[in-house]
Amino acid sequence: MNQKTQVQTPLSKTLNPKLLQGGLSPSLLIPPVTRLQRRVAELKQFSQLLQKVHPNVLAKSLHRGLLFQNQDFIAINKPFGVPVEDGPGTTNSIKSVLPVLAKMMDGLTAGSQLHLCHGLDKETTGVLLLARNEETAEHIRTLFQTHQVERKFWAVTVGAPVPAEGVVDIPVVERHVAGPQPHFKMSLSPVFRVSDSGEGLTRVRGQRQAARAVTRYRVLDNGQGCSLVELQPVTVVKHQLRVHMAYGLSCPILGDHKYAHWNKLAPQKLPEGILKKLGLEQNKVRHLPLHLHARQLTLPQFKGHGDITVSCFLPKFFTSTVKRLQITFPEKPQEL
Which of 181, 195, 264, 267 is the most buried (most CB within 10 A)? Predict the structure, then answer.
């Protein structure tokens, strides 16, 4: 019988305040006055903590947040707002601190390295795998590409998907959005449309650039106009979960300002009832972080091991939001 290993390790409780001095925005150090100001300051503290600190501070946080390790790879929690890869305007990235993190993992052993195996969006939190050598990294990348890695994400969505459980199987393609702020977004590229008579479906010609995208979903609970939804991407396509929820099910992920509107870049528009529960006004919604968390990842049999499942604790801003919306977790959550 295959041995299945279940791993769930808590992250660090709190970053050392001395290490963060000089790394946080001055606005986080100004005492808030009104209830709204306190709420905005709270969101900033939750979501901006590691975006502009010294790289060594980020590496230390990732090290303390170790979820799993063996001789082949490690699993860490990717924090909100920190990109996996380097890019224009990037202050910190997971990739840029890998040399420092590798030394922390193995002391000062010569030749210690860590390699990226897959990606997560800058705004997404949760389980991220890092290989100890390039051979292992390539093997894990192949497992992702051949859809052999099972991943479960938790998301808070605006509205409730109908039906409460199902599969979204709609190709996704990147499109240029014209207007005052020209930009690119991923969008749906369906292969069927409603017929002119409105009584059936007509197959349409698919776009060559479109990638097949399949997402399983199920609603875990509802509350105050929002839902807690478990998402399982069958395929690996850029922004697949966000696009399927926003455009396929008309239930955008809370805090997803990129896909809140198709023809412009603007903060997500939320109903008054949800704003009240979140303690916000519409003109402060831009401070809401994306509520999408890579909750669990399972690697199939690997180098003589059975299946390995790694779970990641929820960010504090996520559990705070769920509590405010009076949504019930399927199990008692543990915060980062």
Answer: 267
